Amino acid sequence: MSLKPGVRYASFWRRLLAVVLDFFLMNIVVGIVTQLFFGNSAAEWVQTSLEHVQNNQAPPMPPSPLLIPMSLLLPALYASLFWCKMKALPAQMLLDIQVVRAKTGGALGFGASLLRYCTLVLSLYAILLADLLVPPAGMLLIVVYIVALRRHPKMQALHDLLVGSVVIMEDDTDKPMDEFTRGF
After folding, report:
1. Contact, 153 vs 7, CB < 8 A?
2. Phi and psi at residue 66, in whole multiples of 5°?
C-alpha cells in the first residue's frame, strides 16, 4: 500500500484545531483516570501546588509517587494507541484527518506513535518555555514553526519528519473548513 497520487495534506490550522480539541479531551480522560486511582487527593494536590507556585513557595509532594508518572504516561499511551490503531485521535477523526506513514499510507506502529507524541510534546514545551523565559523568543519560535510547517511540501512538522509520518485528509468532506482556512 502506498499513498494515493494527489493525496491532500492537512492544513496547519486544521491540525492546530485538532491538537487543541484533543488536548482538552485527553485531559478529561486523564483527569477521570487519576481521579479513579487517587480520588480527590490528586485534584487537591494540583490546586495546592498551583497556589504554592503563585506564592513563590515550593510545591508539596504528590499524594502518591505514581501520580506524576501516571499523568505523563497516560496521555502518551492514549495518543499512541489511537494513532497506531485508528490513525487518528478523536478530534482528528472529527476533522477528517489521519496520521499515516509517509511512504505507505499505513498506520504508524506503536513505537513510532510514541516517539511522535514525545517529540510533539517536547517541541510544544520548548515553545512554552521560550515564551515564559524570553517572550519575543517564544513568539519567534511559534512563527518559525508555522512558516516551516506551511513551507514543507508535505506539511510535515519535526515530529512527523522524525518518524516518517504525514497528516492527510481522509476524504473530500472538508469544504466548510476549506472556506474557513482559505488564505492561511
Report:
1. no
2. -90, -15
Residue type, 18: A
Ramachandran region of residue 25, left (φ > 0), alpha (ψ -120 to 50) or beta? Answer: alpha
Establish if 23 belongs to a structural domain: yes
Please list the helix, strand and coil fractions of the chain in percent, rounded to the nearest 5, in that order: 65, 5, 30
Q: What is the grid cell recorded at 167? A: 497528516
Cβ-based neighbours of 145, under 8 Å, separated by 6 or more: 123, 127, 157
In a domain, 177, yes or no: yes
pTM of this prediction?
0.79
Q: Tell me: the pLDDT tens digits for 37-79?
A: 887 777 788 888 889 888 888 888 887 888 888 888 999 999 9
Query: In which residue are the cell numbers 495518543 written?
Result: 79
Task: Note whether residue 3 is domain-resident.
Answer: no
Owning domain of residue 60: 12-181
